[in-house]
Specification:
The complex is a heterotrimer of chains A (313), B (343) and C (290). Chain A has 313 residues and is an all-alpha fold. Chain A has 14 helices and 2 strands; from the N terminus they run H-H-H-H-E-E-H-H-H-H-H-H-H-H-H-H. Chain A has a two-stranded antiparallel sheet. In chain A, a hairpin with a 4-residue loop joins strand 1 and strand 2. In chain A, helix 7 crosses helix 8 (173-207). Chain C starts with a helix and ends in an 8-residue tail after the last helix. The chains are: A mainly alpha (313), B alpha/beta (343), C mainly alpha (290). Chains A and C meet through helix 1, helix 6, helix 7, helix 8 and helix 11 of A and helix 6, helix 7, helix 11, helix 12 and helix 13 of C.
Chain lengths: 313, 343, 290
């Protein structure tokens, strides 16, 4: 199998999931008990505005036609109209997408920076004091809810030390990175325990492979073996674990964005739910799901680039 | 026969200096409260340029012996409890790890049993062949690439300039084993340890790989230790043979001597259990019983429970190699009486 | 050890024997969890305050002997509220973990055993549910159904079974080719009997181990939703809601947010330790969120 057919078949596999996901997002607005427009307007809508809003949202057409419009519009990036904000949902969501993606990337980088050295130490000293200590720290870390960790970081680094801003996003790139430090550190601390645990297991697993003995027989030093021969192989299962856990990462991000008043998809979702802005909720649920699917796809592709054997299978 | 010829040459060069001297080596594995003695007072001297075969059933300690020379056994669970391994005048067991790294790959190299597991699946083959040389001699990327192509050519890989950048999964087992051999000779080692180099390969490929090893040894004058469970492989290739059982060397002699006049019941048993092409309907006789558990060795000769020549004294006798004929060592207390039986 | 012999031992001896085999993490975790449960049960007798009673003369008091966790902006004693919070968060976590586990494991093992159409439909449903970030899915369902603890239960019951179905299905795919299943089939047992009587006990282990992490995440979920203002509403003494209330006073009263959070961390750690120990005791690999 070559690269192109692999990618194409992988994309084809995604189609049923995308249909299912779009169906769930589409039904979100239709499963609301009562009239969604009436709910959005807190029951104060007159019959005329109600009718106008229904027409605007397409709610007066049959379900099948509505769904057809929903997916064809979504394919072109249009996700309907927010009655409350009187703006295009695609545009509202689009503005928030980049900050969230940026937050995810910086969080993943922080998480790897934390997890990599700790998992290497834990693996090299497996079943010794250092390993047990790291495992315990991981367990406690896993039990810490991100919104609480965020508040602790806010208190210490934001208020007590006054090193980093505790809310907002900033304007220039550098300023944005500065604003991202605490939120992404919070998400990273949520993710790191899972990463440490899986990386440690993966490294231990790889270190028993015969090619590691061969590498030692060639006269390579322990660090070279670890970095060149063990880590690369151990990172492959970790890529998958990161991708599989992207949902959890995003869940953490929703809470953290809200806590740090960070203008991303998560804080938008919380606000939209508070305002009962159903078209935005609908659009966001679709975008979140697509984000997860895309990350999983990218992980599979990068896996394939690291290990060509995938193509053979 | 090539081996016999070489042996004749060998005999005239008795004065060749030893390159490797293993003295009274004891290696133990400590696992779950049990102590497994995988090498039990092993002594073996290997002279420069010769080919020494180590044969025995699986679990007899031959691989452990091989790996402890390069100090590749993980500790824990393995511990060297006694002995010395002198290589070029230095005791390898005394060297700091950093010195040992300089010897691995450069002075002593190893060929492994299963080629498909011996190479890292995520790096190109050529890269892995010369990696040791890049570390030992600080070879640059381009020079290393050139060396890889040259080495692959020497081990008989067709169009090496193209295949050098391929990955292990793209090659057959026999080809990868050639690459592993190329990796072993990359540093021009004085000693090559080949640990069952043909066991994992198809029968038709086995002979090619053995022939390659022999050719390379002849061309470079390298010393070779060949570990195998197969008496036939050893017969074709080795100058001398050490027969191992339960972590001990039971018999050590020139190959032709072992085959003609085995002086240990276990060697005799091994010989009788291999099919012979010229044997006119001779029946194969498997050795009865199982090798003993290495964690619970009885005193005296470990082969005694399976031995048809056993005496009560075997259960108490001190087991050590004694010279029973010129250059012929046996650990059997009845070695002298065995000649009559074997012939 | 002779099995028939152990069965003859009196119950307390068998329990003692089992307890002796527990890894230290399991023992420590169980002791902490037991302490928390008892503290929740006996909360009214442990502290002299009532979680809803305000004392406007004593607002925003830092931790002291009279108020070990300090007081909040209504002068309510925070330690009292944290202890009463056990009565909300722990049962919630328990129900949202073990109710979906029951039908998740059943559905997953049936799908794994039977294969075919049922299996593929279930797998497609799983793929879709897993494509949504869990919290997002819960928030959207809560947004549709409206807020309230009942709707949160409902939304979790609708979605949380998927993890268990996945685990049980994977285990069942391995298990169904084992000799004892083939033997049961040769005896003419029906699929229902084979799955429930024979295979289920063996496919449960990974779910049991995972349920401990799930328990932690579910407690975090309800407190997270309350923190976002979508879950339990004030003045209910729910841990996440308390943390959210403290957020407004982060500059002058650090203890309101941080100390209730400690309760979450200790509970979560106890559950994780139990999970870790169970994994060792049951000989399971610990699953990192699958």
């Amino acid at each position: 199998m070559n690269l192109i057919t692999y990618i194409v078949s992988r994309l084809l596999q995604m189609i049923p999931v995308v249909i299912g996901v779009s169906l769930v997002a589409f039904l979100a607005i239709h499963l609301v008990p009562g009239d969604p427009v009436q709910l959005m307007m807190h029951g104060r809508a007159t019959p005329e505005t109600l009718q106008a809003a229904h027409a605007k949202l397409g709610l007066d057409q049959s379900l099948l036609i509505q769904y057809w419009h929903f997916i064809t519009n979504a394919a072109t990036g249009s996700l309907g109209t927010s009655i409350i904000q009187n703006a295009d949902v695609g545009k509202i969501v689009g503005e928030r997408l980049l900050p969230t993606v940026l937050l995810l990337v910086t969080s993943a980088v922080f998480a790897i920076l934390i997890a990599l050295p700790l998992s290497i130490i834990a693996a090299r000293r497996s079943d010794q004091a250092a390993d047990h200590a790291i495992r315990l720290v991981g367990i406690i870390g896993f039990a810490m809810p991100p919104f609480w960790v965020g508040i602790i970081l806010m208190l210490f680094f934001g208020i007590y030390l006054d090193w980093f801003p505790i809310s907002g996003y900033g304007r220039s790139f550098g300023d944005r990175m500065y604003h991202l430090v605490l939120p992404s550190l919070t998400v990273a601390l949520f993710l790191a325990p899972i990463l440490i645990q899986s990386l440690r297991a993966a490294i231990l697993d790889v270190m028993t492979a015969e090619y590691i003995t061969v590498a030692r027989a060639k006269g390579l030093g322990p660090w070279r073996i670890l970095i060149k021969h063990a880590l690369r192989n151990a990172l492959m299962p970790v890529t998958t674990i990161l991708a599989v856990n992207i949902g959890w990462l995003l869940s953490g991000a929703v809470v953290v964005e809200y806590l740090f008043s960070f203008p991303g998809l998560g804080s938008l979702l919380v606000r939209a739910v508070g305002q009962r802005d159903y078209p935005v909720i609908q659009g966001l649920s679709l975008v979140f799901a697509i984000l997860v699917l895309v990350v999983n796809l990218l992980a599979d592709l990068s896996y394939m680039l690291i290990d060509r054997r995938v193509l053979k299978a | 026969m090539a081996a016999a010829e070489r042996q004749a040459v060998q005999a005239s060069e008795e004065t060749r200096p030893p390159i490797l001297e293993i003295e009274d080596l004891v290696v133990e594995f400590h696992q779950g409260g049990k102590i497994v003695r995988a090498a039990n007072h092993v002594s073996l001297t290997v002279r420069q340029g010769e080919t020494v075969g180590i044969v025995g059933e699986s679990g007899s300690g031959k691989s452990v012996l091989c790996r402890s020379i390069l100090r590749l056994l993980p500790s824990p669970p393995s511990f060297v409890k006694n002995g010395r391994i002198k290589f070029a005048g230095r005791d390898l067991l005394e060297l700091p790890e950093s010195e040992m790294q300089k010897i691995r790959g450069a002075d002593i190299a190893m060929v492994f049993q299963n080629p498909m597991n011996a190479l890292n699946p995520v790096w190109p083959i050529g890269d892995q062949i010369t990696e040791g040389e890049r570390v030992h001699r600080g070879l640059g990327a381009r020079a290393a690439h050139g060396l890889a192509v040259e080495l692959l050519k020497r081990v008989g890989i067709p169009s090496p300039d193209i295949r050098v950048d391929e990955y292990p999964h793209q090659w057959s087992g026999g080809m990868v084993q050639r690459a592993v051999i190329a990796m072993a000779i990359a540093g021009g080692p004085k000693l090559i340890l080949a640990d069952e180099p043909t066991t994992a390969l198809d029968v038709t490929i086995q002979d090619q790989i053995l022939a390659l090893l022999m050719d390379l040894q002849e061309a470079t004058g390298t010393t070779l230790i060949l570990v195998s469970h197969d008496m036939a492989v050893v017969a074709e290739t080795c100058d001398r043979v050490a027969v191992m059982y339960a972590g001990r060397i039971m018999e050590l002699a020139p190959t032709a001597e072992v085959f003609a006049r085995p002086r240990h019941p276990y060697s005799l048993g091994l010989l009788r259990s291999i099919p012979r092409i010229d044997g006119k309907g001779q029946r194969l006789e498997p050795i009865p019983g199982q090798p003993p558990s290495l964690s619970d060795l009885p005193p005296g000769c470990p082969f005694m429970p399976r031995c048809s020549f056993a005496l009560p004294a075997c259960g108490t006798a001190e087991i050590s190699l004694r010279e029973v004929a010129k250059d012929h060592f046996s650990a059997c207390i009845k070695a002298a009486d065995l000649v009559a039986v074997a012939t | 050890m002779d099995h028939s012999n152990t069965l003859k031992l009196p119950l307390h001896r068998r329990l003692a024997d089992e307890f002796r085999r527990w890894p230290v993490t399991l023992k420590v975790g169980a002791v902490i969890l037991l302490t928390i449960v008892l503290a929740g049960v006996f909360a009214p007798w442990l502290v002299p305050y009532y979680p809803y009673s305000q004392d406007l003369n004593n607002t925003l008091q830092p931790p002291s002997l009279a108020h070990p966790f300090g007081t909040d902006n209504f002068g309510r004693d925070l330690l009292t509220r944290v202890l009463w919070g056990i009565r909300i968060d722990l049962p919630f976590g328990f129900l949202t973990t073990y109710v979906p586990m029951i039908y998740g494991v059943v559905l997953g093992s049936l799908a794994g055993y039977a294969g075919g159409f049922f299996d593929s439909v279930l797998m497609r449903v799983l793929d879709v549910v897993v494509a949504f970030p869990f919290l997002v899915l819960i928030i959207v369902i809560v947004a549709i159904l409206g807020p309230g603890i009942f709707n949160i239960y409902l939304s979790i019951f609708l979605t949380a079974w998927t993890m268990y179905a996945r685990l049980a299905r994977a285990e069942m795919l391995v298990e169904r080719n084992k000799d004892y299943i083939l033997a049961a089939r040769n005896l003419g047992y029906g699929p229902g009997r084979i799955v429930f009587r024979h295979a289920l006990p063996n496919v449960m282990n990974s779910s049991i181990v995972f349920s401990m992490s799930d328990f932690v995440l579910n407690i975090m979920l309800v407190s997270g939703l309350s923190f976002l203002g979508l879950g339990v509403t004030p003045p209910t003494p729910e841990w996440g809601a308390m943390i959210a209330e403290g957020r407004d006073f982060i500059f002058e009263a650090w203890w309101i947010s941080t100390l209730p959070g400690l309760a979450l961390v200790i509970t979560g750690t106890a559950l994780c330790l139990i999970g870790d120990g169970l994994a060792q005791r049951l000989g399971e690999r610990r699953h990192a969120l699958i």
